[in-house]
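Re: the request from the purification team.
They wanted to know what the chain is likely to look like in 3D before they choose a buffer screen. I agreed to run a prediction and write the result into the notebook, where they can find it.
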Amino acid sequence: MAFAMLCISINALPQFSISGKITDEKGVPQYGANIQLKDTHKRTTSNSDGYFKLDGLKAGIYSIEISFLGFEKISEEISLDQSYEGSFKMAPASILGEEIIVRAIRAGNSSPVAYTNINQKELGTRNLGQDIPILLSLTPSFVTTSDAGTGIGYTGFRVRGSDANRVNVTVNGIPLNDAESHSVYWVNMSDLTSSLDNIQIQRGVGTSTHGSGAFGATVAMQTNTLEKNPYAEVSSSAGSFNTFKNTLKLGTGLIYEHFSFDARLSKITSDGYIDRGWSDLKSYFLSGGYYSDKTVIKANMFTGIEHTYQAWNGLPSELLDTLRTYNSCGSYYDTSGTERFYNNETDNYQQDHYQLFLSHQFNNYFSLNAALHYTYGRGYYEEFKEDSDMGLYGLSPVEINDTTIINTTDLIRQKWLDNDFYGFTFSANFKNNRNDITLGGGWNNYDGRHFGKVIWAQYMSNTMKDHEWYMGKGIKTDYNIFAKWNFQIVPGLNIYTDIQYRHISHEITGIDDDLKNLGQQHSFDFINPKAGINYTLNDNQEFCVFYAIANREPNRSNYTEADPDKTPRSERLFDLEAAYNYKNELVNFGINGYFMNYKDQLILTGEINNVGSPIMTNVEKSYRTGIELSTSINIFENLQWQANATFSRNKIPDFKEYVDSYDTVENWLGQISDTLGETDLAFSPGFIANSQLIYSPVKNFSISIIAQYVGKQYIDNTSDEKRILNPYQITNLKFQYILKTEYFKEAVFHILINNIFDQKYENNAWVYSYYLGTKRQKDDGYFPQAGINFLAGITLRF
């Protein structure tokens, strides 16, 4: 009702419009040009005749921007006291725009998928050292996690309840998900945000892209684009828990009218909220390119080096009220029974990325993009293991006169991953007045070495230091080809079709850390079709429907942890979405409904393999359905409100649980199964909401009140109220001031106060349930987040 009254009051004002025709210098109409009124919600695209119209405007001065690939941007001011109609001629660009690099995998204005774009300016206002998942936390259906409790170090996210290994992530169209685990480890790419131009998040299956299957969302990142003028930027921030971030950025601008080079160097450190949950993160980014009116040749190289103390055990639930920062990682007991902590219980990894792009626009209709990529990752995590069975590490027991006297030992182990990932991607695009056709694809190969070393043992017996106790390999080849066609039937009505073929072959060899033979091979051929309709009712309203089928192969651990006779099957998702959007000068409102129906989704049911480890099991039926609401309202000229909310049901219609049973702590009796009927999918809150109120009392100064609410989440798939993450709401306060002087282009001051009401909450957890006698017991680990804390920073741009 409030929204309806607001619309009525707005429509009661005098209404004008801005319209016009967009052509090239020869008078040829340009279809699909992007038109936007700055600092308003008004935007549209030109139709097949080059015509556009923005109506529902009140009197005033407007800045209109018109952009189109291959042409110079048009920026004009229009003083509006009556409806305006004009002609806009676009001149050929002297430099080809870099959006051509990611165009093949991005959703456009007429794409019928649910998506959110975040530009460089928005990212910059949030970037004080926290990882990318935290910076994206205000987007719809998004829930973040942080092991160390501060958003620095090991962080992650879920979209619509789907975990990270079901979210497709790319950088410049290059797959970023680890080919074997399907996950993205953001800690390996600290401060990549400082080198990003924009991010697009597509929720649900989304459009076809490269890399792993998208079962919850697609996150497409694009790194910095051409800066025509030389620049330098220094940014530093500091805050609670000895958090420090320092970044230096430099760029040559365009030299000799064709060349440009950029560089960034960053370092982030933090003690973390959790005991010893510190992070020491270093990274750099280098880029160089050749630019002309038709061609871009660009190379990127970026590296992340992370050194963190492990904080992934979580905190037992019984300690949440008394020892919230306790970290059991590295814990052991000395001979007197006193708890000690191994001081190098750390995770250590370096990841180097190399990317080379060639983009060429042949004419106003046809363009081509190709890329080569190579990623080299290597590192280990180190652990102290107390009183370990020597036989599990290939160590011979200590014997005297053929009698075993020692068969356990304290030891320090390192578990290593050393891998190469390389391949190419390509796309060709044809666009005229009614058709937008893309043909794309890629080939990628992964070669990973998994091995473990015993670097010290109290009793090394028959071995030497750095004894290797296991070695396994994974070789995975993935190639795909897709075709997309967006066709304008009549002005305002577009149909979208998209089909992808994807082939995966995965070979696993060697032995695992439990000395189990891993030898196995798997192959998949997937067809992933998508289709939709986008209908623009008028300049203020549009409606779209989208349907997609996606397939996803099991990851490495799904295979290695399963029994040989229980090979997991691939998963399939049927995704139906429908959306309505309303916008005028002051309001932008959207509603998106979705129904994601899964076949053979892999989840934890409590089942174990033949050595007692939990395994992921295919469940025949499960689904996620919900409504996503979003709005942005310019309440006054200096007061804006942005908000979104998700209401959802996430269910398994017929869930069967398996629980270990013991009569004593040492004596395992087997498993008890129980059919529970309909249950909730784990980590899938029924309600999520975000709100941001931005007030600018004076020019260049803003105050933001940011509120986030996440509803109750079940930790497992049983819907048991004893195993939940409680709902939580946190409120943050942000101040920003921009100062411009003759000494530098601008100085930007930030202060971010997180969790201003000092709420105690946890955003992630794990649980293991079992019966001891007739009583249900559990072991668990929760991840407490920091109470009130702050970050403050300054950025100087020259």
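For the purification team: The longest strand covers residues 366-389.
Please add any questions underneath this entry.
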